[in-house]
Amino acid sequence: AEAAGAAGVAGVAPGDPAGQAAFQFTLGKVLAAEGSFPEALSAFEEAEKLAPKDVYVRLERAELLGRLGSIARQPRARADYLGRAVEEVSKARELAPGNPDVLRGVGEIYLALSEQDPKAMAIAQEAYEGLRRQAPSDLQVMVTLGRIYLEEGQAARAPGVFRELVSYTPNNAMVYSLL
Q1: Does the pLDDT value for residue 136 go beyond 60?
Q2: How many of the other CB atoms lie within 10 Å of CB of 18?
């Protein structure tokens, strides 16, 4: 009732689930930016209930859970947050498997998870390879993928990534130094 009342204040009709979901989504983003993480998670959860097939609601919640997992000090809390992030990002990927925003979320969450589960690196690598096919000029994606290859003992694959990136950003000193 409180959420519906707040949604009404924001100009969303109480009987409009899509509008209420959008309100809860926006509220979650604002609360997360302010550092009110439990409240942000609750708002994203409410948005998910109202719009269960909205990829971005699931993705934002997954990314927030991933950030919380990355900053958690206790190993059990870290594992819990990252596990929940994996569940959410997996649902987002089921809804939109080729969406670049989803692939980026998958990559980031599985990279964080790889610190405690080395098998997660393969999924992160797969996501970044998908992004490479979609956006080979994306500096962040390509550098991350190249570094994954280097860290995973696939150093022979890294120069190809960096050479491709140099072709898109020919004056980038950092890319040349990686190459």
Answers
A1: yes
A2: 11
Q: How far is CA 30 from the centre of its chain?
A: 17
The number of residues in the chain equals 179
Specify whether the CB–CB gap between 28 and 55 falls below 8 A: no
- Residue 138 to residues 1, 46, 108, 154, 175: CA-CA distances in angstroms? 44, 33, 15, 21, 12
User: In 3-state terms, what secondary structure has residue 98?
Assistant: coil
Identify each DSSP E strand in the chain by its residue range: none
Q: Going by C-beta distance under 8 Å and a sequence separation of 6 or more, which residues neighbour residue 106?
A: 89, 93, 123, 124, 127
Across the range 54-67, mean pLDDT stands at 96
Q: Report pLDDT digits (tens) over 5-15.
A: 444 445 556 67
pLDDT at 23 over 60: yes
Q: Give the model confidence (pLDDT) of 116-132 as tens digits.
A: 999 999 999 999 999 99
| pLDDT for 11 | 57
SS3 content of the chain, % helix, strand, coil (to 5): 75, 0, 25
Residue with tokens 């992160």: 124
- Within 8 A by CB and 6+ apart from 95, the residues are 53, 55, 58, 102
